[in-house]
Write a structure and sequence with these properties.
By secondary structure, this protein is α+β, with helices and mostly antiparallel strands. Helix content is 47%, strand content 12%. It is flat, with a radius of gyration of 24 Å. The N and C termini lie far apart (48 Å).
Length: 113
């Protein structure tokens, strides 16, 4: 809907994901008529001591930055680690040809199963 104006109607073409719980829609294509009812612009506030104090009294700009970094790191490490590692291994497998010793395969299998 980028560039659409309030009151404008556009057709949106979508394909529902194959893994959708509702199997009647999984993998199917659909067209939606979407009318823009309202448009707004969001701005990200400057991280400063005033904003930090509004979030939590006694917090400063550096404290909020540290908390944001920690939250992002924790979120990424938990939620995306497996996805990232699979994508990396798939990409490496596509460009590398490596012989894997039988002992490594056996040890990995023992750890997993």
């Amino acid at each position: 809907l980028v560039g659409a104006k309030v009151g404008e109607t556009r057709q949106i073409y979508v394909t529902f994901p194959e893994g959708l719980r509702d199997k009647t829609l999984a993998g199917k294509k659909a067209i939606f008529d979407v009318t823009v009812e309202e448009a707004s612009i969001r701005t990200v506030p400057e991280i400063d001591d005033e904003l930090a104090a509004k979030i939590r009294p006694g917090l400063d700009a550096e404290g909020i930055r540290a908390e944001l970094r920690k939250a992002i790191d924790e979120n990424e490490s938990g939620e995306w680690t497996e996805v990232r590692n699979k994508a990396l291994s798939d990409a490496l497998a596509d460009v590398m040809d490596v012989e894997v010793p039988d002992t490594l395969v056996t040890n990995q299998a023992r750890e997993k199963y």
